[in-house]
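Shipment paperwork, digital attachment
Item: protein structure file
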Amino acid sequence: MLKFFNKRLVAMVLALVLLLSITGIGSAQQLCVPEIPAEQKQVKNMILMVPDGMGLPHTTLARWYKGGELLTMDEIACGLVRTHASDSAITDSAPAATVMATGHKSHSGFVGTLPDVANMPGLDPIEPGEERRPVANILEAAKLKGLATGLVATCQIPHATPAGFSAHYPDRDDYELLIEQQVFNSIDVVFGGGYDYLKKRKDNENLFSTLKQRGYEYITTRDELSKIKGNKVWGMFAPVDMAYELDRPEHEPTLAEMTQKALEILSKDSDGFFLMVEGSKIDWAAHANDPVGVISDVIAFDDAVKVALDFALNDENTAIVVAADHFTGGMSIGNLDEDYDIQHISAFIEPLKKAKVTGEGLEKKLNSDRSNITEVMKEFFGIDDLTEDEIHAIAAAEADAVDEVVGPIISSRALLGWTSHGHAGNDVVLYMYHPKGYRYCGVIDNADINKYMQEVLDIDLAETTERLFVNAYEAFTAKGATLKVDSKDPENPILVVTKGNIQIKLPVNKDIAFVDGKQIQLPGVIVYTGEFDELDIEKWYVSYDVIELIK
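Attachment content:
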């Protein structure tokens, strides 16, 4: 009896441990993370991959669409990630990217800065005066350590996620400002869309000229991507965002191809590299409730994960983290139709298999007066039973919003439900690979992703912030200097610091300073976090190197 009791006790303890690890009760690090020496945790290369907006229903649907075969991501799934922002249960891409990049939760719309308020359970409040302060990101710290750095995305490069790893401003929609900081942040490889933001500028800055002066190769086509020889390149393959994979024109590369080329270039650096890859438009399709767009780009993203994992397995000195920033759309496989729950999987997948384009791609097939709706929906979506209400809804849809109408139309035929056109507060799946098995599991916070990257790259972001983002007003006035803002060119204000016969000019969003007229290079960009129509002398942040110029 005692022997049997002991067996039962052991079984109960093991079951409890398993339950705790699954539910995330307690510390994920205590239960799931192998205890290995710090030096064994560290690797030369870090790849972070963000399938924007991707949730469990998205990967489940993509898996069934492929005939039920597992995705590459499935091989390295290990836990869940909590996604809340500093002051909300639901985050948007800007603070979600910010916390993964910097370790600090922020407010919706803020890129690379602290929030105004941090009042979610478990968070410390923001210290007075620290609101909207820029904080260093993992890419900037990797660059200072001597690592090569890269960004790859299918959206426009100054969009929220890539910007969160390369720029700082409490307004994610100021694309001109964000891309200027990105250009001056000396990133080795940048692939994505958005060349309009380099050339159609209110401030008349010639960022193409800046890239050329800094030794970058600038390319715009898939063919040019395949022929790159240098180590510094900006590839901008669309005026704004790139196409969904299902709609992709021949001149645009795939996400997997961009990832492959980025790894080829960055791995030339013997010190190692940091690379962020985003499957940007999974989120956009989910916002439109377009399941075809979701499937298109989940599979394209998974192809890029395979490229990264193959590289890491061969390299044996590379860690990979894959995690969505949040869940979008609230998709469910199953809706309110009668008997949906007894249908074979073909009832869900066959309507989607008939689609030859996404909702966004379908809009381009409509003529100017949209008189060919019936024909187009039959040819490209396989739908030949449109109702009069559906035809009217497509005809009345605003430009660039047809996907928001046709997405639900195909979803209803595929028995798919949606709860929102926005984000949701659900946890998302965590996927990790480390050559020595060092990875988190259980339920972690999105800030823990940043903690992990600091660990494996042996980086201290608090120290990096202290070096790159000193409050200029506080530091310079403490040294007896005077400050003013030269706003003769209101689109390009300059902070001017004077003490005695020394004058320093600090142009916003650049990594250069002019000391008594002589240009010097700085380790990071100059950031202003206030409003530009009412310049505030106390909201400029500069590197410690600049402060040292005043004795």
